[in-house]
Design goal:
The chain has 8 helices and 6 strands. The chain is mainly α and 274 residues long. It starts with 5 loop residues before the first helix and ends with a helix.
Length: 274
């Protein structure tokens, strides 16, 4: 799923420019200048680029995955059944379903309409321009992975910059122009890493508060309490709803898919109501 939104496309381009610039500075101006004859050089290059690879994979998954789009009905919906009640006794699943007048369809509980994607999204948290997609039931895991890897990359880059200037470097060039270029690139990298690092930490805290509280950002803003008198599920249960029922060690792997919902069942229920 790719949304044609100018702001989102620009944010994606900025994201990859920032990531690959950080990779360039670490390899070209830190490792090759200060760790030429050390085994730490290849180690840091491989480790840093592994994190970059995981970051790119999780970001592409978040960008291209279906966030949980509610299927549209095959025929135009008759709004008269909203007032008459229709034949609701046949499907208990529809008790908490609502109507989206923009999509002209029924939507399941906790689904909301996104004005940018122009579709209803199951368990929609918010629309994020950095992935040019909604954060919903099916791609929230990849969004969180993306945030984690950006945070790791930012911390790693700042650490490498500090180590490169604190430790003695007999192999470093004494050329003034090279030193000035290295200082400039390192300063830009530190500022970039600090800015993105603080930003993703703030969003991560918000995401985990939402997951552990079993309440999306939209539900918090609108003041909806979907629990009513129900007991809030346990922490691992809430995390498993987003990350899948596999071992927690696999939750940070972009290749591992989150739990699936039955899109066919949704379509069947919607078409039956039309």
């Amino acid at each position: 799923m790719f949304v044609r939104d100018l702001c989102g496309i620009v944010c994606i381009i900025v994201t990859y420019i920032a990531v690959f610039y950080a990779d360039y500075v670490v390899v070209r101006w830190i490792v090759l200048h200060t760790m030429q004859d050390s085994l730490w050089g290849p180690f840091h290059v491989v480790t840093f680029n592994t994190v970059v690879l995981l970051l790119v994979m999780s970001h592409l998954k978040a960008v291209c995955s279906d966030p949980g789009v509610v299927p549209l009905p095959q025929t135009r919906m008759d709004f008269s059944d909203i007032h008459t009640g229709g034949n609701r006794d046949d499907f208990d699943e529809r008790d908490d379903w609502t109507v989206c007048t923009r999509c002209e369809t029924y939507r399941p509980p906790r689904a909301h309409h996104c004005r940018i994607c122009k579709r209803c999204i199951r368990r929609m948290d918010h629309h994020c321009p950095w992935i040019n997609n909604c954060v919903g039931e099916r791609n929230q895991k990849y969004f969180i992975q993306f945030l984690v890897y950006v945070g790791i990359l930012a911390f790693y880059a700042i650490t490498l910059v500090i180590l490169s200037w604190v430790s003695d470097c007999s192999e470093c060039s004494n050329d003034v122009a090279i030193k000035q270029s290295r200082i400039l690139h390192c300063v830009i990298l530190v500022l970039e890493s600090a800015l993105f690092g603080m930003f993703v930490v703030a969003i991560l805290v918000d995401q985990f508060q939402a997951i552990l509280g079993d309440e999306t950002a939209i539900e918090r803003i609108q003041g909806h309490n979907h629990h009513h008198n129900k007991t809030t599920p346990r922490t691992l249960t809430l995390l498993a709803q987003v990350c899948g029922k596999s071992h927690p060690a696999l939750w940070l792997l972009p290749c591992h898919n989150p739990p699936r919902y039955s899109c066919r069942k949704d379509a069947h229920l919607i078409d039956h109501q039309v």
